Amino acid sequence: MTRHATAIWSNGKEELYRLHCFADPASAEAFRDHFNGIMFDPRKDRADGKARGAWHRSEPWQKVSDVGPLSIPVSLRD
Fold first, then answer.
1. pLDDT tens column, 45-57
2. Strands 70-71 and 66-67
3. Which of 7, 10, 13, 42 is the S-S candidate for 61 at Cβ 3.0 to 4.6 Å?
4. How many domains does the chain have?
């Protein structure tokens, strides 16, 4: 299953993220390893489910140009 959530950092930066949900941890781990993904924990990242549609990120924001085998073309980067 795929869902969307707005990632929100403490500095006010927001980005739309696509969340891929898996029934078993092994499949999630394989997907995460292939695409250099980030683990999403609904209890921790959505304030115990109170912040629906939002993903509160605790680490500092940084621009993502490469995601596993995918990358943004150099001509489109800032």
1. 776 666 677 888 8
2. antiparallel
3. 13
4. 1
- CB half-sphere exposure, 55, CA atoms < 13 A: 19
Measuring CA to CA, which residue among 23, 40, 35, 46 is closest to residue 70?
35
Residue 48 lies in a domain: yes
- Domain assignment of residue 16, yes or no: yes
How is residue 7 written in tokens? 């990632």
Q: Which domain holds residue 37?
A: 2-59
Kindly state the tokens that stand for 68: 């596993």
* Per-residue confidence (pLDDT) for residue 53, from 0 to 100: 74
Give the gyration radius of the chain's Cα atoms: 14
CA 9 to CA 55: how far, in whole Å?
9
Whether the predicted model's global pTM rises above the 0.90 cut: no
